[in-house]
# Entry
Amino acid sequence: MKTAGDLQRFYDNELLPVLTDLEKRRKAIFRNIVIAFAVVLFVAGAIGACSLRSQGSPTALIMIAVLGIMALVTIGMFLSKGFIRDFKISVIGRVAGYCDPNLSYLPESYVSRAEFESSTLFKQGIDRYRGEDLGSGQLGKTAVRFSEVHAEYKTTTRDSRGRTRTQWHTIFKGLFFIADFNKHFSGRTVVLPDTAERFFGRFGQTLQNMNLSRADLIKLEDPEFERQFVVYGTDQVESRYILSTSLMRRILEFQKEVDAPLHIAFVASQIYIAVSTRKNMFEPRIIKTILDIDLIQEYVEDLQFAMGMVEDLNLNTRIWSKA
# Structure
């Protein structure tokens, strides 16, 4: 177990020299962003003033403001892109090694779309899929892969004037985790948040049974688990074998810890866990200094949260036939 002293020594000896160099780059980038902001503000103000003198419409002023904001965002992304990549490689890569020497970190990689879809956790077709911050390695006896992913679908509508409008909708955004499970199984078991029964009571159970896009509804003997989750599986016996009493207890405890929508699937002797979150992990600061051990502590906690799923769900236990 890492202590506060361990983190301080790691910060002083391994990170501080790297962070000091990166801090100089951060200050230069922030200075350039401020200059760009002043230039865009001046140009937008000048155009807006000309528009007002020529009795321009309010819509034109709004468009000028929107274009100015878009220009600033684009400039900021362009100026900081290389810095963010180098920060993640130099700092988060070292933090990953500090958390566990067997953990590798690739900032621009992520769990593939094929792996995401093979979980069968989300049935909506995907139109756009991206991610970042892939961690992988052998944690004890368990091989793991996890990253941030964002899956979306789009809808297109046409108004009375024939104008087309495309909207993007999130299917899932958060941390997606895959691990080798400690039991052999051939079927598929999916554990989903039970919003239907929570809101509609017994009628919610009827709605669960009517979910034609899923396999059979699995009824379990843990009332608290059934209030929080709904379970579908291709094999009633196998699903109950996987979801032992102790595992259901661990999942409930884990749900309380994450305090966010939790989706779990057991497919092809692997466990897939999707934790919804709006947080963008492992991103460096641009406005504030990065010479801050509390910032490093936050990165450590984010990695330990992902890695901790192995311990939280007791995945390293191999009391069954799986080696």
